[in-house]
Amino acid sequence: MDRPLSANSQGPFAVAVVGGGVSGLICARRLSQQGVHVTLFEAEPLLGGEIRTRTFAGHEIDMGAEAVHISAPGMKELIRELDLTDALITSNPGMSWLWTGRGLRRLPAGVGPSGPLRLLPVLQSGIMSIGGLARAALEPLIPRRTLSGDIGVGEYVGQRFGHQVVERFVDPVLGSLHAGNVYKLSLRAITPELSAIADLRASVMLSRREQKAGPPLSFATWVGGLSLFVDRLLAGTDVEVRRSSPVDSVARLPSGRFQIQEASGVVLEVDAVVLALPARIAAKLIRPLSAKAANILEQIRYASVATALVAYLLDAVKNVPALNGTGLLVPSSKNRLLKAATFLTTKWSHLADPNYFLMRLSSGRADEEVIDQLEDSALVAQLHNDLVDATGITAEPVQYFVQRWPEAIPQLEIGHLDLVRQVREELESYPGVMLAGSSYDGLGIATCLRSGERAAVSCLTLIAQ
Ligand SMILES: Cc1cc2nc3c(=O)[nH]c(=O)nc-3n(C[C@H](O)[C@H](O)[C@H](O)COP(=O)(O)OP(=O)(O)OC[C@H]3O[C@@H](n4cnc5c(N)ncnc54)[C@H](O)[C@@H]3O)c2cc1C
After folding, report:
1. Structural domains in the chain?
2. What's the 444 CA to ligand 1 centre distance in angstroms?
3. How many angstroms separate the alpha carbon of residue 179 from the centre of ligand 1?
4. Cα separation of 166 and 175, whole Å?
5. Residue 268 C-alpha to ligand 1 middle, in angstroms?
6. Ligand 1 pocket test, candidate residues 79, 227, 277, most atoms within 8 A of CB
7. Model pTM score
8. 287 φψ region: left (φ > 0), alpha (ψ -120 to 50), beta (else)
9. What tens digit of pLDDT does each residue of 24-64 get?
């Protein structure tokens, strides 16, 4: 028997936010601050979605997202609003390594996720061949074609700078970040600044020289990890939170309102629903409303990834020169399970430990199923072996913990913006259904916060009508 949760048909405008990751949490916060009655449904016992902190070797360490980009638009203001500014810890300055055919090389200054901004540091880094570098230097002279539609970031950067830049920089930096294939990831969705340059038929290198330098990339966390940030998002609000409450269906009633049903059978009637969920789950929920929207959402693919925390005895590794860096990136051409390593002890002052050197090892990319086939111990053993080959470390880890993130990283592939536009247009026929989160608007905490805030604004606009 369905049990009604609360009778709110006579009360203020009621919104169900489905999904308690950062997108759903900020949306719920903003709506509640405007007097909207919000019920937030989260499938898991904990809020935060891809933000999850656990105690490891006596420290609070993040297993999913590990840092917020504090220079992103609106981020500093939100942190201030949450009264978390004073406790903020920024990452230590330091260099990252790239694992190249000739061993570890410093990731040169002036290399962004989409290629080099300056050639001199790249030349000095020894990462590119003379031929590859000469080709990259020709970028301003390469004919600029009109770009109709979308192409892969890898293809665009390859056309402009040559494919060595893609393989040696774009793949390990941007590809690791998105756990994807840079030839499939969308120029329009992933690198809007490059997309704008392409539309102007301008040179990437010359345009960037002319651009004013944006705020430096600056990453931060708190001693309690990012869960502290998550916990603050609903503090002091009237949001009704239903943990361990996966939503099973969303139905539109003849009145135009919506009935939300939990897997347990509990039902709730609301005026609007924000699906702050991965597209593959949102597709199931909205199929009864619109098969067209569901079919579009199902085209978005995901990469499964796994994060392993490992602790080495400090005395056993402190003389390994590579560990002076803050981490390392591994290009796909290496064919390794290890995609990236973060040297937590070097990167974060609060994770410097008298006994242990702590690391976070990342694995998994789109179309790579190997992590699903490995038990935790085998996964860690293989990641450790890759690390041995990359850094020359000889000690074995004395503790580890593995967190798997199945189908976690949405692949914003060629045509992604069109897909999202089509699905949002289709949903305009069902006023009151909104989408928020990384599957639609892009990866990363700052982007998801903006996505959740936009959904809240759409709800408020609906109320005002
Ligand atoms: C390993 C890893 C490392 C990352 N590192 C960083 C980083 O350092 N910095 C950064 O900015 N970003 C990072 N990211 C990306 C960032 O964490 C995500 O883009 C962002 O947290 C996604 O938020 P979201 O709200 O869109 O989705 P999610 O966090 O996926 O939240 C969706 C929520 O919906 C819930 N849910 C699912 N089904 C249902 C249902 N039927 N009913 C109710 N609830 C449901 C889920 O349990 C989940 O809590 C990382 C991601 C991963 C996986």
Report:
1. 3-47+234-300+412-464 (3.50.50.60), 96-210 (1.10.3110.10), 301-411 (3.90.660.20)
2. 9
3. 14
4. 10
5. 24
6. 277
7. 0.94
8. alpha
9. 999 999 999 999 999 999 999 999 999 999 999 999 999 99
